[in-house]
Write a structure and sequence with these properties.
Elements (H helix, E strand, L loop, with lengths): L27 E4 L1 H12 L3 E3 L3 E20 L2 E18 L5 E12 L10 E4 L5 H27 L11 H15 L2 H7 L23 H9 L1 H4 L8
Antiparallel strand pairs: 1-3, 2-3, 3-4, 4-5, 5-6
Helix pairs in contact: 1-2
């Protein structure tokens, strides 16, 4: 354990009004069971699917058993949920007007499986109406899985609001970003021109070579072997 006055952020409690669980270092847990039941009811009941043959609607959240919770440790969120869900659905065949009912069962919705891998089974009471059952197995199942995905998004965002409290470092970083965003880049460019490289003073030097001889003789000096070994007298 850090000693008093050493500045370890895990144990500085005097900077918080409540003086507990500074920077979310310790384990905290929040029960999401009751909230989840209400959210699942909101998202699942009322789902409607329809095609040329018929129309189906999820009419009731018949059973929802299980639990859900969210824990915080060292500023990280850990989710646990396990649900057994039964839904009632009803439908009507458009051509005949005959109505049918059935169930949608989700035996295991948990963090161990992805939504796409979650089992969703559809059943229908005795009698005709397989057209409606097929509609619920295809379009209905897709809509149910979409609603379950929305539940998980809400669990990880809406329900967890306030669980991760900002630390001093996070607040300072956020303030710095806001200040940078609030400054106009054109103003910075106009008021503070940036010099590129290092300025070095230079002078220009021009040199000219003068050969005091005819052009034909100069050409021979550089091309005839016997002449190239002789000394060349240049005037500067």
């Amino acid at each position: 354990m850090a000693k008093w006055g050493q500045g370890d952020p895990r144990w500085i409690v005097e900077e918080r009004e409540d003086g507990t669980n500074v920077n979310n270092w310790h384990w905290t847990e929040r029960d999401a069971t009751s909230w989840s039941k209400g959210k699942l009811h909101e998202l699942l009941v009322g789902i409607i699917v329809e095609n040329e043959a018929g129309r189906c609607e999820i009419s009731e959240l018949k059973q929802v058993e299980g639990e859900a919770s969210c824990s915080s440790r060292k500023g990280k969120l850990i989710f646990f949920y396990e649900w057994n869900i039964k839904l009632s659905w009803k439908g009507i065949i458009k051509e005949s007007g005959v109505k049918h009912k059935g169930l949608v069962e989700i035996p295991s919705l948990s963090e161990e499986n992805e939504i796409d891998d979650t089992e969703v089974s559809v059943s229908k009471k005795k009698g005709d109406g397989d057209i409606l059952k097929d509609l619920m197995k295809t379009a209905g199942t897709a809509r149910v899985k979409e609603a379950l995905g929305d539940y998980l998004k809400a669990l990880k965002t809406e329900f967890t609001m306030g669980m991760i409290l900002p630390t001093k470092a996070m607040a300072t970083q956020e303030l710095t970003v806001k200040r940078k965003l609030s400054v106009n880049p054109l103003q910075i460019q106009a008021s503070s021109p940036v010099a590129l490289g290092v300025r070095i003073p230079t002078v220009a030097v021009h040199m000219t070579e003068l050969f005091d001889t005819a052009a034909e003789q100069l050409y021979s000096i550089f091309t005839v072997k016997d002449l190239t070994n002789k000394k060349i007298v240049m005037k500067w």
